[in-house]
């Protein structure tokens, strides 16, 4: 009987030691069972860390499963510069923003976004509204020639370098409303819509030919600025908003062509001049080419 007891004890002890050794890897990193850990590893491998734009070389690597998720590590560009390519540089933007096919949405980003982020090369639509961007440089859009729409409403932009949009040959809509601009940069001739409402623009900050060469421009919004005069308006314009500025006078060439009574401006549908100190009733010959009178004060 004693011999049987001893044999049973010897057989059981290694099993206990083996089990303890097997569970030692899971504690203290895990409070889960091996089965639940397998499920968690499967979830990790199935793409929890998959981004809207997945880079060719993953920026996050998952180590062997027996090391546990506590060992998830991010690549460090400083220590391995040779392993980081252009696609990896795009990933941080898509972590802060929402990247869909051709579109990037960066609205009210935290921590504060103070500059235009690096964009995927195929970006056509950028919405970076209500951030803390202060300046647009020549490099920000130099490589993103596919851009068709840029919306930077509600930032702190006070400076735009003159060549910032020069390479955007497909750009159709540019919105810079609710910023701190005192002057306008050179604008692409491909624009159909330009919105700079609610800035600090004065006439001296808008070049005489700022809109002259924009032969496709249909919608121009410059309301709530500090303009003293109406800028040159291209023939293509349909709608122009100039309300709530400091415009004090206009002339026969502002909208029409002086005494040329045969000239009609058929494209122009809406002109808003309300909220300016100009009395439009003093310039009756200034509107003879228009289909409808401008909105404003006539007394």
Order of helices and strands: HHEEHEEEEEEEEEEE
How much of the polypeptide forms β-strand, as a percent range?
A: 5-15%
How many helix segments?
Answer: 3
Distance between the termini: 121 Å
Task: Report the count of strand segments.
Answer: 13
Please outline the major beta sheet: 9 strands, mixed
Large-scale geometry: elongated
Give the integer mean of the pLDDT values: 77
What gyration radius follows from the Cα positions, in whole Å? 32 Å
Classify the secondary structure makeup into a structural class. Answer: alpha/beta
Helix proportion of residues, in percent?
A: 10-25%
Q: If strands are numbered along the chain, what order do they take across the biggest sheet?
A: 3-4-5-7-9-10-11-12-13
Q: Which stretches are low in confidence, meaning pLDDT under 50 for 5 or more residues running?
A: 10-90
Characterise this structure:
This protein has helices at residues 2-24, 34-45, 86-96; strands spanning 60-61, 73-74, 98-100, 103-105, 125-127, 135-136, 149-151, 159-160, 173-175, 193-195, 219-221, 239-241, 270-272. The chain is of the alpha/beta class. A nine-stranded mixed β-sheet has the order 3-4-5-7-9-10-11-12-13, covered by helices on one side. The protein is elongated, with a radius of gyration of 32 Å. Mean pLDDT is 77; it is low at 10-90.
Describe, in short, the structure shown.
The protein is 15% helix and 12% strand. The chain has 299 residues and is an alpha/beta fold.
């Amino acid at each position: 009987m004693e011999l049987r007891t001893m044999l049973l004890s010897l057989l059981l002890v290694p099993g206990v030691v083996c089990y303890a050794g097997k569970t030692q890897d899971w504690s203290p990193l895990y409070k889960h069972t091996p089965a639940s850990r397998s499920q968690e590893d499967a979830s990790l491998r199935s793409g929890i860390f998959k981004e809207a734009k997945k880079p060719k070389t993953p920026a996050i690597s998952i180590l062997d499963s027996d090391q546990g998720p506590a060992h998830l590590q991010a690549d460090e560009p400083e220590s391995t510069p040779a392993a980081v390519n252009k696609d990896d540089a795009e990933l941080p933007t898509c972590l802060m923003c929402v990247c869909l096919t051709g579109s990037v949405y960066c609205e009210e980003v935290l921590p504060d976004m103070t500059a235009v982020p690096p964009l995927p090369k195929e970006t056509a639509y950028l919405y970076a509204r209500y951030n803390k961007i202060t300046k647009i440089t020549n490099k920000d859009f130099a490589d993103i020639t596919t851009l068709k729409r840029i919306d930077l409403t509600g930032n702190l932009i006070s400076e735009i370098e003159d060549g910032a949009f020069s390479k955007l040959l497909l750009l159709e809509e540019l919105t810079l409303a609710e910023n701190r601009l005192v002057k306008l940069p050179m604008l692409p001739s491909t624009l159909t819509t330009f919105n700079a409402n609610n800035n600090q623009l004065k006439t001296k900050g808008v070049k005489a030919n700022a809109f002259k060469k924009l032969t496709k421009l249909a919608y121009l919004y410059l309301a709530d600025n500090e303009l003293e005069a109406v800028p040159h308006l291209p023939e293509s314009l349909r709608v122009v908003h100039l309300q709530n500025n400091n415009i004090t006078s206009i002339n026969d060439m502002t909208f029409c062509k002086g005494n040329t009574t045969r000239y009609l401006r058929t494209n122009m549908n809406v002109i808003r001049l309300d909220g300016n100190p100009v009395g439009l009733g003093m310039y009756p010959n200034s509107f003879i080419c228009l289909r409808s009178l401008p909105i404003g004060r006539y007394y």
